C-alpha cells in the first residue's frame, strides 16, 4: 500500500518537472522572437530553469521509487481536486447569477462536501457569509460581480 | 516644537481619530488582499473636512494598523493579507498548529512595535543622511540590491537548494510576463489583453499561500490546531522577544534600509529579513517549524519598512510606494509640502507624534486581542476552508475589480498545492516574482545609460553589493560541503577507533 502511494508521489513529481520543462521550453521559444533588449532576461531565466528542471528530472528518474520521502499528511478529508472543482464551479455560477448567490451556494455546499452533516448549521453559515460579503461590498463600495442573468433582469426592468 | 506637537496629537478628538483609524486598519488588514494601500485610499476622501492634524493621525493609524492586521490571518490560518506578510506565516503558522498562535500574534505585535519605533527614529533623527546615501544609488546599485536579495534563494530553498533555485527562476520568468517597459512590446501574453499588465501580484500570492493552504486543510480534515487548547500569551511573547533581541535589531535595520530605497519596499523586506535571520541562525533547520525568530524578523522589518517608506516621502517629496504616494497626497491636501522645506512650523511634529502614537495604538489593541483571535484555529476545517477560499476570492477580486483575478488565484492555488506537496518552496517563487521586475528594469537602464557591463564593477557601492551577493549565494553551498567533509572525517575517525578497539 505504502509502496503504491510512494510510486504515485514519485510519478506526480516527475509529471510536475516535465510540465516545468515544457513550460520553460515554450518561454525560450517565444523569447527568441523578441527584440534583443526584451529577450535577454526571460531567455536567461527560462534557459536556467529548463536546464535545472531537466537535471532534477534526471536525478528523480535515476532514483528508485522507494527513495521518495512519504508524506506525513493524514488523508482524512477531501482530495484537493474536489475542492478546486467546487471553486471553479462557484466562479462559473458567479458568471451567471452573480458573486453573492454563488458564494452563498458555495458556503452551503462545501462544508457538506468536507463532512459537515448538520444542514441547519450549514444554512446559517451560508447566510452569515453571504450577508457579510454583501455588507463588505456595500461598506467598501466594491462593485461585486453581478452575473449575466442579474444584468439581464436589471437591464430588462430598466 | 516637539512638546507642542505631542500636546496637539493628544487632544481628545485626535485620540478618537487614532482609535478609529487603528480599528479600521486592523479590520481592513485582516482581510486577505486588502493592505495599507486600500485602507489609506479608502479613508482619504473622509479626511477632507477634518482638521489637518486629525486627518494625518487617522491616516497614520490606518497605515500602521493595516500593516499589522495583515499578519493576523497570515499567522493564524496561513493566509497572508498581502505580499508584505508572506514570510510571517512560514513560522507563525507552525506555531499556531502547536497551539502557540497567541504567542505568535503577540510577538508579531511586539516586533511590529519595535520595527515601527526603529523606523520612526530613522524618520526623525537620521532621515537626512540616509536619504543622501539613497540618492547616490543609481540603476546599477538597485540592480545589485535586487541581486543580493535574489542570492538568498539558495537559503530559501530549505533542504533543497536546486528546487529553491528552480522556483526562483520560475518566479523571475513569470515577472517578465506583460508589457516591456523599454520597447513597449508585449511578452508571453498569449494574445490576451488581461496579461498585458503582467500577472497580478495579489491574486498570485493569495493563490500560492491562501488557496493552496485551504486545499491542504481540506485534505487534512479536523482543525488547524493540532492541540486542543491555545496556550501562552503576551508574557511568553515578551520573553521570546527579549531572548531574540538581536533578531529585532537585524529586522529593523533591513526594514529601514529597504523602506528608504524606492520600489523595493514592503513586498521584499519581510522575505529578505526572514532569510537573513535564517542565514545567521545557529539552528537554520528549525525555521519553518515554528521558530519564534522566524516571526519576529519579518514582522519587525515590515513595520520598520512602513515608516522607512515615509522617509523619502517627507524629506524629498519622492514617495517610495503607492501607499506613501497616497499619504503624500493627503499631506498636500492638508497644506503641507513634503520635501526639503518640510520641517517648518508645528505641523510636521504633530505628524511625527501621530505616527509614533499609531505604533502604540495597534500594539496595545493587538496584544489585548491576541489570545481571543488565536482561538479561531479551534474551528473545524469544514468551515475554515470555505471561509479562507471566499476571503481569498474576494481579496483577489478587490485588487482590480476583475473576475479574471479570481481565476488567477485559483490557478496559483493549485500550483501552490502541487509545489507544497513535492517540496518546491513557494517562498523562492514569490522572491523571484517580486524582484524580477526591479532587477530587469534597473539592469537594462544601467546598460542603456552607461553602455557597458563594466558599470556594475566600477561603481564602489555596486561592486561591494556584487561581492556581498556572490558570498551570500556561495556560502550555503560552501557550508554544506564543509559539513559533508566534517561528517566523512568523523566517520573515518569512528571507523579507525572501532578497528583499533577490535
Plain-language structure description:
The complex is a heterodimer of chains A (158) and B (502). Chain A is built from 6 helices and no strands. The termini of chain A are far apart. With 502 residues, chain B is mainly α. Chain B contains 23 helices and 2 strands. Chain B has a two-stranded antiparallel sheet. Chains A and B meet through α1, α2, α3, α4 and α5 of A and α10, α11, α19, α20 and α21 of B.
Describe the secondary structure blueprint for this structure:
The complex is a heterodimer of chains A (about 160) and B (about 500).
Chain A (H helix, E strand, L loop, with lengths): L1 H30 L4 H27 L17 H18 L1 H15 L5 H21 L8 H10 L1
Helix pairs in contact in A: 1-2, 3-4, 4-5
Chain B lengths: L1 H8 L2 H19 L5 H8 L8 H26 L10 H10 L3 H24 L2 H9 L3 H12 L2 H4 L4 H14 L3 E2 L6 E2 L13 H20 L13 H10 L1 H16 L4 H16 L12 H16 L1 H7 L5 H12 L13 H27 L7 H20 L2 H19 L4 H25 L4 H4 L1 H42 L1
Helix pairs in contact in B: 1-18, 2-4, 2-18, 3-4, 3-17, 4-5, 4-6, 4-15, 4-17, 4-18, 5-6, 5-15, 6-12, 6-13, 6-15, 6-18, 8-21, 8-23, 10-21, 11-19, 11-20, 11-21, 13-14, 13-15, 14-15, 19-20
What is the 3D shape of chain A? Answer: flat
Low-confidence stretches of chain A: 66-74
Structural class of chain A: mainly alpha
Main sheet of chain B? Answer: 2 strands, antiparallel
Compute the number of strand runs of chain A.
0
Tell me the quaternary state: heterodimer
**Structural class of the secondary structure composition of chain B?**
mainly alpha
Taking the alpha carbons of the first and last residues of chain A, their distance comes to: 63 Å
Strand proportion of chain B, as a percent range, falls in under 5%
Q: Mind describing the biggest β-sheet of chain A?
A: none
- The percentage of residues in β strands of chain A lies in under 5%
- Would you list the SSEs of chain A in sequence order as H and E? HHHHHH
Low-confidence stretches of chain B: none
Helix content of chain A: over 70%
Kindly report the average pLDDT value of chain A.
83
